[in-house]
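Sorry to interrupt, but I need a hand with the structure work. Leave the record below and I will have a look:
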Amino acid sequence: MKIKSSTIWFIWVSLVTYVIVDNIFLKNTIDINEALGKSSFARTMFWDIGVLSMILSYWTVYKTDLKSRYFFGILTLFVGSFAFLPYLALYLKDKEKNG
């Protein structure tokens, strides 16, 4: 199955839209320290997100060849999929164009 860059852009726009809507309308915030202290699931997910961001950042910098890989690699370490998904869309678009 081949994923198109437009699909990745749609996922990214959906993620950003969700964050904006959640912040403006829902306002259901929890204390992160309390959640991490009480929930082993929350601790596992927090750890998983950190490790996943490092792996994606490594892949971005060392396994791809776009000129913007260093910028997106560093940005992925700090904001995760908010930076990785646009880079992946650009990478896939470049692969579609250049074969």
Remarks:
- The CA atoms of residues 9 and 86 lie 7 Å apart.
- The chain is about 80% helix and 0% strand.
- The first helix runs from residue 5 to 26.
